[in-house]
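Now read these lines:
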Amino acid sequence: MVPRILADLALDRGVGRFHHPGHERNEPLNDTPKSEEYALGVRDAMFLIVPLPAKIYLKAEVAEAIARDKMEQIFRLRAQMINIALKKKKPDWHVDPDFHGARPDSLLARTYLTTGWKYKHRVIRNTTSPAVRDEVTSMHLPRYVWVTKFSLAQDAADPDPCRQRVRGHVLIDATGNRFDDDAVLLAHVPGLLMGERSDVDPANDGGATRLRAIPDDQTYYPKVRGWYDFTQCVVARPGFDS
């Protein structure tokens, strides 16, 4: 089976030459059949080579490892971060207890490469909270970024992307150094946003990291290749609360 992280990258960049008609519906790659147009199916693939732009220095596996490390850090220091963001000690906090009650290593992650402007476009047109949209639109982003989105197992159980949910994500500079702490540009978990401000002077600001509490935070849809927006998901469906 082709590693999902590589297959997602190839298909997002239009590189994959094997047949995968179910990608738009997030169907499993290992179930992809052959067709009259393509002589080979995914089951015939032994490996996959994905060409990247010359200025991308972080591999997908490294980016996802950095994102998971950041998520574990947030889980470990969550109480302190909430206190700082709300400027209170032991505030009343009940945002998404299912997510915050899970183990960080149990979270489902999906990592893909995109451009900074496409990332902003998807965030603005998704069901993200206004606080997340405001933070993202004010950021100065590099040309290429890695995005790792996190969900609970039940969030991705339905093959219909309109019934899947994303609860948090980590944004990483794809052109950065893996050993540079500034590689992580933004980290979002339910109710809390940590943004790395590249447009401020740390000497005057006291630090480039900004914490923001989002008491009315909400989930959002996963990225679906080829979709301009999520209008078809926003339309109410029977048995689904959009």
